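Whiteboard transcription, Tuesday session. T.W. wrote the structure tokens on the left side:
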């Protein structure tokens, strides 16, 4: 009986720890970089309790962006989006934590800044859709795809922050 209870608790703990390992792809777009908002965006994700596991400052190629935004191929805005996104450097990041995809999307605000609540990144810093400063994965599956496009597995750093016990329950 005791062994079953211990195994059940271990199973629950393992599931909770696995959930804490969910990852999302977050990118500060050229307008966010040009407006010096990179630090503010990183600050918000760190303050929330998420863990940064990869980051790079890069001038993306049109080929990479076409792969990244492939679901939008054929839409009227696609060519302009690729052109804009390749117009300057971006900051690509991978963040890890419990429900980080869903929470990250909430922290960013809606795609249209006019509909974003105050307190969200877009609600606080954006006016138009075409200059909404940040991209974030919309699902765990798209996060995995996007992370794979932008980062080699060797660039994802596994580490344990000292604050882990102050953010997550056992």
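and on the right, the sequence the group agreed on:
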């Amino acid at each position: 009986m005791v062994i079953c209870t211990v195994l059940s608790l271990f199973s629950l703990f393992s599931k909770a720890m696995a959930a804490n390992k969910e990852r999302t792809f977050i990118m500060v777009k050229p307008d966010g970089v040009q407006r010096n908002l990179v630090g503010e965006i990183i600050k918000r994700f760190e303050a929330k309790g998420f863990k940064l596991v990869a980051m790079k400052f890069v001038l993306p190629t049109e080929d990479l962006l076409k792969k990244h935004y492939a679901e939008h191929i054929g839409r009227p805005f696609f060519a302009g989006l690729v052109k804009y996104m390749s117009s300057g450097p971006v900051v690509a990041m991978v963040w890890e934590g419990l429900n980080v995809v869903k929470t990250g999307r909430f922290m960013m605000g809606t795609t249209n800044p006019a509909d974003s609540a105050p307190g969200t990144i877009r609600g606080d810093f954006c006016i138009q859709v075409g200059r909404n400063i940040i991209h974030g994965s919309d699902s765990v599956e798209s996060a995995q795809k996007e992370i794979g496009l932008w980062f080699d597995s060797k660039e994802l750093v596994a580490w344990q922050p000292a604050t882990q016990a102050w953010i997550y329950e056992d």
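Someone added at the bottom: Residues 4-16 have pLDDT under 50 and may be disordered.
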